[in-house]
Amino acid sequence: MSSGTNKHWAEEIAEKVLERRGVKKHVVATGITPSGHIHIGNLREIIIADAVRNALLKRGADAEMIYVADTYDPLRRRYPFLPENYEEHVGKPLSEIPDPEGCCKNYAEHFLNPFLEALEELSIEIKLYRADELYKRGAYADAIKTALERRVDIKRIIDEATGRRSPEDWSPFNPICERCGRLTTTKVKGFDAGGAFYECECGHGGFAPFKGGGKLTWRVDWAARWKILGVTVEPFGKDHAVAGGSYDTGVRISKEIYGYEPPFPIPFEHIILKLGGRLAKMSSSAGVNIPVKEILEVVPPEILKYAILRTKPERHIEFDPSLGLLSIIDEYERRFAAADDIPFRHVVMLVQLGRRPHSEEVDLSLVRAAAERSGYVVKDEEAFMRKVMYAERWLRRFAPESMKFELKEALPPEAETLTEGQKAALRVLASMLEEGMTAEELHNAIYTAAENVGIKGADAFKAVYIALLGKPSGPRAGWFLASLDKEFVRRRFLEAAA
What we know:
With 498 residues, the protein is an alpha/beta fold. It has helices at 9-20, 40-58, 107-121, 131-136, 141-149, 151-162, 218-229, 238-241, 246-257, 292-295, 301-309, 323-336, 344-353, 364-373, 381-397, 420-432, 439-453, 457-469, 477-482, 486-497, and strands at 25-32, 62-69, 127-130, 173-175, 186-191, 195-200, 205-209, 214-216, 233-237, 264-268, 271-275, 278-281, 317-319. Helix 13 (344-353) crosses helix 14.
């Protein structure tokens, strides 16, 4: 998490911001278009902004973090998760489209609300702006008028930066058609001090006031927003930072059109989702993602934040919610957990030992008993229950099959595959079992039993798992045996050896 100077990357960025931007108050901006589930890939931007805001505050600066929900952006297409009748809403602002499930006041809120709840869980404080509200109350009115008056200059800036030629009738303002409700099918034909005259592909022509009657195109909107909200720092995806990209044009529009110094940029690499060994770029619209609300059901918020903060913004993150996430939890606990805390990886095993027979339901008393047999004392009941809950959800949602097991009530039929050497090892091991043996002692005992009967250690471990689980592998054997009732284990080993 630190560079060679022992400073966290957020502290280094904060120092550069304070050197370059001599202002009284810093506004760290972030945001997203809520066109679908807001996922952990989107979360990286928020956590970067939060870390930099906190680093600025730590240095005595006056700083706040704002979140702009681009609720006035149009629905670009009917996404795979939307019903067919949403074809008619393509091109309309998200805030003006009905919620696909009928639980919120509009489409944008349906996807925004769970994310805002997740930010509360993550203890990330923001000042929220909804773009549709900003436009409707006239916050953008002067910026729209200026953009239309300077249309030729803005077109030249964009053409020079991108190397492409915009259509001659290009406009920085997209009116919303009064008849069809779309803003992607209108053309500005003229304007006056209060609004723009337009024609729409639907055949309607009308007048769109600058106050709520439409929105600026993305590149112009972004630059205008910096001045309107006083933005001084902003993280954004690396795709916006390429030569001729949104930030390049934004810088020129901000300076040359709006007379405002653009914010300090923090370009960042994306989070790549790793599922089943395959990498995939996350996309809300394509449905390839894990919503933030969902991942917070399987991992504590402090660990999710750590998973992102441990990597510098300029490096990409491969997020594997399966074994990769388990390794990050291990790393977090090594750094921050108390020595006597029960490791999450161990709780994952205990949860499976605590399931009631013929049921997926977890009996907390069984889990606690297994924890105490393995040498742990449950000191904080609430914290223990919380960890059990996360472990149980992770097992159901993301754990690979290799991590899952079921302690068999009766000797499994697979025990018939045991060799005479494996059976002999189980008999020796049964004679060695004593109450109070540590996980390390039990682990070593398996090797000793194997050596005594002349078989490989790996074969003895397989025999242990087959006798108890009916398969040749399982959780770490020492900890596993330490968590079980020794008399039960002794009887099972002798039964398997018989």
